[in-house]
Amino acid sequence: MLHSPSPKRALVTGITGQDGSYLAEMLLNKGYEVWGMVRRHSSTAYDRIEHLLEKGASDQGALHLVHGDLRDTGSLLKILRQVRPDEVYNLAAQSDVKVSFDLPEYTADVTGLGPLRLLESLRELDLPSRFFQASSSEMFGKVQETPQNENTPFYPRSPYGSAKAFAYHNTRNYREAYGLYAVNGVMFNHESPRRGDSFVTRKITMAAARIQHGLQNMLLLGNLDARRDWGFAGDYMEGAWMMLQADEPSDYVLATGESHSVREFCEIVFEELGQPITWHGRGLEEYGQAPDGRKLIQISPEFYRPSEVDMLQGDASRARELLGWQPSVSFRELVSMMLAHDLELVERDAARADVA
Ligand code: NDP
Ligand code: GDR
């Protein structure tokens, strides 16, 4: 009698985050058994993966949640021993750059030491799991060269960037020292309608949707001239999976190759809403005005960072050539997708409030 091969098993840390939800969706559709590590919360609202839990997973794979924390080695050992995953995707982190200046030690613990705890646990248990580390373009920090590729030196500008660089080097070192299949995806900014609302793209699309519906007057922002290479999160998770399917473990940059400023992001959003902005004033006095004279955007020092990463633009040629990876969503499409989602969200909330 023929037996179908048992499904591959993946452990995803950070499954409740933006990337974790896209990755879980994708792996389930590929027939994986997915184990998501979750932290204990006072409420168990897993907004981003609720649709996967409700469906009782997916048509093919199955989703299981287990409690654990990157700060607790015992929990990592226990989960790895229980799950014995073929693939581990380490997406969990204190991922907010601005917050990392307020919580540097905590960020180093979760974002820097967390991956080391996972790697050491894998080694300790002698598991043959393949390991993906969510590394970040924030490691490049102060501009050394543009565009940035796998050989560009790191110059982190935040406790978050430094913690990610520590994790990057450890991932590489565990590969070289112990022969683990451990890789870094050096990912540039990626966004989606599921992006946390403290990040600048989602903050802008949410505020614009609320302004459009008269629920908010103004949007307060920090540095409008910061430039980022913004792509769609789903594409980056496809890249993460591809990295773990390659014959040889290696590190890859994932990026779109295009860079845009926060200012441009705002301009496109308000243009799409039929309220093109004009800019007036300078420095902290600068503001963005609607055609009818209303101030829509104002600068607030609160949103500046002690040190800034001015310009990020990635070169993902290596991933394109060796993995066949390329982004499928353009910058314009990404902005429209996020804005359309937030307009719908605001309209739905307004309709609910009317009924209540
Ligand atoms: P999110 O902030 O949306 O998600 C972070 C996840 O980590 C959440 O599931 C969170 O759980 C979990 N987490 C936080 N602390 C711990 C901890 N101590 N133990 C276990 N889990 C924890 O991040 P993204 O989805 O945007 O990013 C995913 C990964 O990719 C992160 O490592 C990030 O640093 C990295 N990255 C992201 C980029 C981007 O542009 N999005 C670019 C480059 C790298 P909870 O829900 O309980 O808070
Ligand atoms: P980033 O993303 O720091 O690049 O880290 P974020 O969206 O927070 O900032 C991007 C740029 O916008 C400027 N900015 C503002 N940022 C925020 N959050 N809020 C504001 O009001 C504001 N005004 C201007 C920032 O100064 C910055 O230059 C993200 C995270 O997902 C990391 O986890 C990931 O590693 C990197 O992307 C790649």
UniProtKB/TrEMBL annotation:
<comment type="similarity">
    <text>Belongs to the NAD(P)-dependent epimerase/dehydratase family. GDP-mannose 4,6-dehydratase subfamily.</text>
</comment>
<dbReference type="InterPro" id="IPR036291">
    <property type="entry name" value="NAD(P)-bd_dom_sf"/>
</dbReference>
<keyword id="KW-0456">Lyase</keyword>
<feature type="domain" description="NAD(P)-binding">
    <location>
        <begin position="11"/>
        <end position="338"/>
    </location>
</feature>
<keyword id="KW-0521">NADP</keyword>
<dbReference type="GO" id="GO:0070401">
    <property type="term" value="F:NADP+ binding"/>
</dbReference>
<comment type="function">
    <text>Catalyzes the conversion of GDP-D-mannose to GDP-4-dehydro-6-deoxy-D-mannose.</text>
</comment>
<dbReference type="InterPro" id="IPR016040">
    <property type="entry name" value="NAD(P)-bd_dom"/>
</dbReference>
<protein>
    <recommendedName>
        <fullName>GDP-mannose 4,6-dehydratase</fullName>
        <ecNumber>4.2.1.47</ecNumber>
    </recommendedName>
</protein>
<dbReference type="InterPro" id="IPR006368">
    <property type="entry name" value="GDP_Man_deHydtase"/>
</dbReference>
<dbReference type="GO" id="GO:0008446">
    <property type="term" value="F:GDP-mannose 4,6-dehydratase activity"/>
</dbReference>
<feature type="binding site">
    <location>
        <begin position="96"/>
        <end position="97"/>
    </location>
    <ligand>
        <name>NADP(+)</name>
    </ligand>
</feature>
<dbReference type="GO" id="GO:0042351">
    <property type="term" value="P:'de novo' GDP-L-fucose biosynthetic process"/>
</dbReference>
<dbReference type="Pfam" id="PF16363">
    <property type="entry name" value="GDP_Man_Dehyd"/>
</dbReference>
